[in-house]
Design goal:
Structural class of chain B: alpha/beta
Distance between the termini of chain A: 12 Å
Mean pLDDT of chain B: 97
Oligomer: heterodimer
CATH topology of the largest domain in chain B: TIM Barrel
Number of domains of chain B: 2
Helix content of chain A: 25-40%
Low-confidence stretches of chain A: none
Shape of chain A: globular
CATH architecture of the largest domain in chain A: 3-Layer(aba) Sandwich
Strand content of chain B: 15-25%
Shape of chain B: globular
Order of helices and strands of chain A: HEHEHEHEHEHEEHEHHHEHH
CATH class of the largest domain in chain B: Alpha Beta
CATH architecture of the largest domain in chain B: Alpha-Beta Barrel
Helix content of chain B: 25-40%
CATH class of the largest domain in chain A: Alpha Beta
CATH superfamily of the largest domain in chain B: Metal-dependent hydrolases
Radius of gyration of chain A: 19 Å
CATH topology of the largest domain in chain A: Rossmann fold
Number of strands of chain B: 18
Strand order of the largest sheet of chain A: 7-6-5-8-9
CATH superfamily of the largest domain in chain A: Aspartate/ornithine carbamoyltransferase
Number of strands of chain A: 9
Largest sheet of chain B: 8 strands, mixed
Mean pLDDT of chain A: 93
Chain lengths: 309, 430
């Protein structure tokens, strides 16, 4: 099977077959990471620019590690705020990146559609979306899928409860796409003020009560609650949120002891997740991080013209 | 003298069955008859085409003064004429905002002496369009204001809207309300529903339009003053207007070319192309359907462009960073007629043509009451429409400076092929 994707903007046009192939490739990359000498020369001579216009540590570091493992040349271009506020538009930035000879650009940018926009402006370079506003974060979804798949095997017919601020969550949007393509039933839960109005259009269901939402769930996925949401008046207080929707040991017990607890990080202890749960046996939060590097290696390798072993 | 031969005539109300000849002498239509023989007249073959009163667009962002790199009175006038319009109304959200008689006078004078369509001024409801105090509406009426509007925003408070409605009751100039309850729309980018859910962008709910329309209807009832709602985009607001009309209130509204032909899916399918970013946002398919029904049942009084030209440097940005607005003056008639044809003519042709002509004319102050009809002795503002003409939207040939057009390159059917303003042919493509 030839890999047809040059970019990853979001997972809409990935098939289940491609996701399966991808997961195997990610497994192979994870094996590489376990070797004493981790580095392979697959992308030697390729220039990758990590273009981060929003604060991000884990995603940027994870991409950078993946790029370095594959021996690519890496340039980090970070800033905060939009380029517009600095007087340069993303269009001019795109042309600058092209002129520098970038083979790929990893973009994290606050505006929805910015990765799509960049890919329209770049003629040759691959574009990898590391988060475009509230819209998409497909590599997070891939690493979540990889971590869950390694634990559970075939995901067909399993259930995932995503609890939290779905309205503002690019992670939730990309995850719904990735997991439902693999045959997972996705149930969203959280206060109605933090839910999109048209949930069926996302391919998910809504259950306002997290207790029934997590019942029989194979995966409980918790979303980060930003302090901002309290300031915006969308939730009365972080404490009330924790009481009603936080992943406590009691809530997780309703799902059963085999359910996985997942979170994209960074976690807010005693808001969306209790410490006992975050650090408990069902949590695979740190495994997700490890999957992140492998998944990004697989992505770069497949899209930048590597030949599959 | 110009003689248009063998044309189907739409006089502003109805279409005549048999082809007619129309003679224009100077600025006037002088003779309408089945067969005319006039020596020395320049002849135009109108066979198979429909001659209409010059089309009127009551909602255009001309951008002058203050933003001439986006559009100016001259370029807008030419663009309007090329697009089939003979009269357009300029919105007052310029810099400075058109909020005083001298500024209205500036647009009125310049707008009356351009190469293409005439441009009528509108004035702000409130001083500096800030929503605090009503502007000098009487002086602006005398200077020739065709509407009063704070377009771009609603009139800020219900009290100010009520005051302005009372104050304009005997002026004969309508208030045009941009219906939007801004506490619900702040930060909004796309329709609330499918587009907001899939994108994560803040949604602009239909209820925000509905609430402001209901406010305007209530205040029109209280004051006895007419009110016009512009760029109505939702089924919900349309229902409220329909009921108000049934009640006998002097309420009117218009609909844009883009809300009749595009919906929120275009934002998603285009992968967030900023060309589809507009306020009010492109709505649901059900809303689009409801707008077409409202054209048919008389709820809608006029078709508009809400032409909002931007320089490419300002508009070519990621969706969330780009400004709102679509430039459509030079293709809107074809956009609407092409959609109408593709939908299988859901509304009668007469009704469609009324919405470009006598409909908007009826909303203008009495001094412009003669527009929107064709009869012997009437001003020769004419639009020749060819429902079989198919061609692409070629923005490179546009007179408008704004190229932010989502239909660029698309092949559309049903174009205006000639515009005549005061007896002068602007463009002839026969």
């Amino acid at each position: 099977m030839n890999w047809r994707h040059k970019d990853l903007i979001d997972l809409d046009d990935w098939t289940r077959e491609e996701l399966n192939l991808f997961l195997e490739q990610a497994n192979y990359m994870e094996e590489l990471l376990n070797r004493p000498i981790k580095k392979v020369p697959a992308l030697r001579g390729k220039l990758i620019v990590n273009f981060f216009f929003e604060p991000s540590t884990r995603t940027r570091v994870s991409f950078e590690l993946a790029e370095k493992m594959l021996s690519a040349d890496v340039v980090n271009w970070s800033s905060s705020g939009s380029s517009v506020s600095k007087g340069e538009t993303l269009r001019d930035t795109a042309w600058t990146l092209e002129a520098m000879g970038a083979d790929a650009v990893v973009i994290r940018y606050g505006a929805v559609g910015s990765a799509d926009y960049l890919s329209r402006k770049l003629k040759k370079a691959s574009v990898f979306n590391a988060g475009d506003g509230t819209h998409g974060h497909p590599t997070q979804a891939l690493l979540d899928l990889h971590s869950a798949w390694k634990k559970l095997g075939n995901l067909e017919g399993s259930r995932m409860a995503i609890v939290g601020d779905v309205l503002h969550s690019r992670v939730a949007r990309s995850n719904i796409k990735a997991f439902s393509k693999m045959g997972v039933k996705v149930i969203l839960s959280g206060p109605a003020t933090l839910m999109p109005t048209d949930i069926p259009s996302l391919g998910a269901e809504y259950d306002p009560d997290p207790r029934s939402a997590v019942k029989d769930a194979d995966m409980i996925y918790l979303l980060r609650i930003q302090k901002e949401r309290q300031e915006q008046g969308l939730i009365p207080s972080l404490d009330e949120y924790h009481l009603r929707y936080g992943a406590t040991e009691e809530l997780v017990s309703l799902a059963g002891k085999d359910a996985l607890v997942m979170h994209p990080g960074p976690i807010n202890r005693r808001v969306e997740i209790a410490s006992e749960v975050a650090d408990g046996e069902q949590s695979i939060i740190l495994k997700q991080v490890r999957s992140g590097v492998a998944v990004r290696m697989a992505l770069l390798y497949l899209c930048l013209g590597g030949v599959r072993n | 003298m110009i003689l248009i031969r063998g044309v189907t005539l739409f006089d502003g109300v109805k279409i005549t069955e048999k082809p007619l000849d129309i003679l224009i002498d100077g600025e006037k239509v002088v003779k309408i008859a089945p067969s005319l023989a006039v020596e020395g007249a320049e002849e135009i073959d109108g066979t198979g085409k429909i001659l209409c009163p010059g089309f009127i667009d009551i909602h255009v962002h001309v951008r002058e003064p203050g933003f001439e790199w986006r559009e100016d009175l001259e370029s807008c006038s030419m663009a309007a004429a090329a697009g089939g319009y003979s009269t357009v109304v300029a919105m007052p959200n310029t810099e400075p905002a058109i909020d005083s008689a001298p500024l209205v006078d500036f647009v009125a004078r310049k707008g009356a002496s351009l190469k293409g369509a005439r441009i009528l001024p509108s004035g702000c409801v409130t001083r500096e369009r800030k929503g605090h105090l009503i502007a000098e509406l009487g002086k602006m009426t005398a200077a020739g204001a065709a509407f009063f509007t704070d377009d771009g925003s609603p009139v800020s408070t219900s009290q100010i809207l009520k005051t302005a409605l009372y104050y304009t009751r005997d002026l004969g100039v309508r208030i045009m309300e941009h219906p939007e309850e801004t506490s619900l729309t702040s930060g909004g980018q796309v329709n609330e529903g499918l587009a907001s859910s899939v994108s994560g962008l803040k949604g602009v709910p239909a209820s925000a339009e509905y609430i402001d329309v209901v406010r305007g209807i209530a205040l029109s009832r209280d004051t006895g003053s007419p009110i016009h709602f512009t760029h109505v985009s939702t089924a919900l607001a349309m229902d409220a207007i329909r009921r108000a009309k049934k009640e006998g209130l002097r309420v009117s509204c218009d609909v844009t070319a883009h809300h009749l032909s595009l919906d929120e899916n275009h934002v998603l399918v285009s992968k967030f192309d900023a060309l589809y970013k507009v306020n009010p946002p492109l709505r649901s398919k059900a809303d689009v359907k409801a707008l077409w029904e409202a054209l048919g049942d008389g709820t809608v009084d006029a078709l508009i462009t809400d032409h909002a030209p931007w320089h490419n440097d300002e508009k070519d940005l990621p969706f969330q960073e780009a400004p709102f607005g679509i430039a459509s003056l030079e293709c809107s008639v074809a956009v609407i007629m092409d959609t109408w044809l593709k939908l299988g003519r859901p509304v009668s042709l007469e009704r469609m043509l009324q919405l470009f002509t006598s409909g908007p004319a009826s909303l203008l102050p009495a001094r412009w009451g003669h527009l929107g009809r064709i009869e012997e002795g009437a001003l020769a503002d004419l639009t020749l429409l060819d429902l079989e003409e198919s061609r692409d939207v070629d923005i490179s040939s546009w007179n408008s400076k704004g190229k932010n057009c989502p239909w660029k390159g698309e092949i559309l059917t049903g174009w205006p092929v000639m515009s005549m303003i005061r007896g002068s042919v602007f463009k002839k493509e026969i």
